[in-house]
Design a protein that fits this description.
This protein is 37% helix and 20% strand. The protein is of the alpha/beta class. The protein has a 6-stranded parallel sheet with strand order 1-4-3-2-5-6, sandwiched between helices. Strands 7-8-9 form a 3-stranded antiparallel sheet. The structure holds adenosine monophosphate (AMP).
């Protein structure tokens, strides 16, 4: 397994692979890898000749008062895990190599404005810009994203469609801890007491999944979910929403494919979770 830091050395490796006619899969991450990331890398390994994992804590997707400085990092551990999972290359650039006096950004309207976009207004601009750059640097045939960040996945799909990237976007299911908490690098911020409190997210998600049915009002589903979260003293709701699965706009009833998503502060840590409901099923 190779590790590159610069765009140039990464491009040279990719160029040689392309010359041999090999397919390339990309798993973009911010590192501090866990089983959620591992599931994406495994899927990527199954479907491609070459597997590239990017490990980059992307500064442009953090707001001014967010956790960029404290975001957990452990490159040696990440590197060992990627090696075990059979990755061929880790692209691990420095922020200065990715952004020098950058003026060009990629912004996807409307889909970015609801849900996480309300409290994190510049987040998806940062995400789309870095993913677009990674796509240009690595030219993958396929790229892998978790359903855990469902809005991000919908936005990337739209970006690929609107900007004509010839890249298949593969969505992968949410990986959870044994007790239901969705795996996240940010779970490491939680104290033991907060870790227990954080279970209100997955409990609310399970309740939503239980009661949702075709035509049910969003209000009914979301209120039951809110009740569960509000019963937890350490939890503070950012949002509990039902949206159209493609446009990310709020819907009044589950009369089409929808996303039901929550964002909740547990102490200072903001956690997200969601489920999709396909009316056709
Ligand atoms: P991150 O390092 O948090 O930016 O995540 C990198 C990729 O891993 C994103 O596509 C995430 O959606 C995905 N991911 C993170 N946590 C999970 C999880 N628990 N289950 C599935 N995918 C995940």
């Amino acid at each position: 397994m190779k590790v590159t830091k610069t765009v140039e050395e990464t491009r040279a490796i990719v160029k040689a692979w392309k010359k041999e006619g090999l397919t390339i899969g990309l798993v973009p991450t911010m590192g501090y890898l866990h089983e959620g990331h591992a599931s994406l890398i495994r899927k990527c390994r199954e479907q491609n000749d070459k597997v590239v994992v990017s490990v980059f804590v992307n500064p442009t997707q953090f707001g001014p008062n967010e956790d960029l400085a404290s975001y957990p990092r452990d490159f040696d551990r990440d590197s060992a895990l990627c090696q075990t999972l059979g990755a061929d290359l880790i692209f691990h650039p420095e922020p200065e190599d990715m952004y020098t006096d950058a003026c060009a950004y990629v912004n996807i309207d409307t889909l970015s404005q609801n849900l996480c976009g309300r409290t994190r207004p510049t987040h998806f601009k940062g995400v789309c810009t870095v993913v677009c750059k990674l796509f240009h640097i690595i030219s993958p045939d396929r790229a892998y994203f978790g359903q855990k960040d469902a809005q991000q996945l919908a936005i990337i799909r739209k970006m690929v469609q609107d900007l004509n990237f010839d890249i298949a976007i593969i969505g992968c299911p949410i990986v959870r801890e044994a007790d239901g908490l969705a795996k996240s690098s940010r779970n490491t911020y939680l104290t033991a007491q907060e870790r227990q409190a954080a279970l209100c997210l997955s409990r609310a998600i399970r309740k939503g999944q239980e009661i949702i049915k075709k035509g049910i009002s969003a209000k009914t589903v979301l209120q039951e979910m809110r009740d569960i979260i509000e019963a937890e003293p350490l939890a503070k709701i950012d949002y509990v929403c039902m949206t159209d699965a493609l446009t990310m706009q709020d819907v009044e009833q589950a009369d089409r494919d929808v996303l039901v998503a929550v964002a909740v502060f547990i102490g200072k840590t903001r956690l997200i979770d969601n489920f999709s409901y396909e009316v056709s099923l």
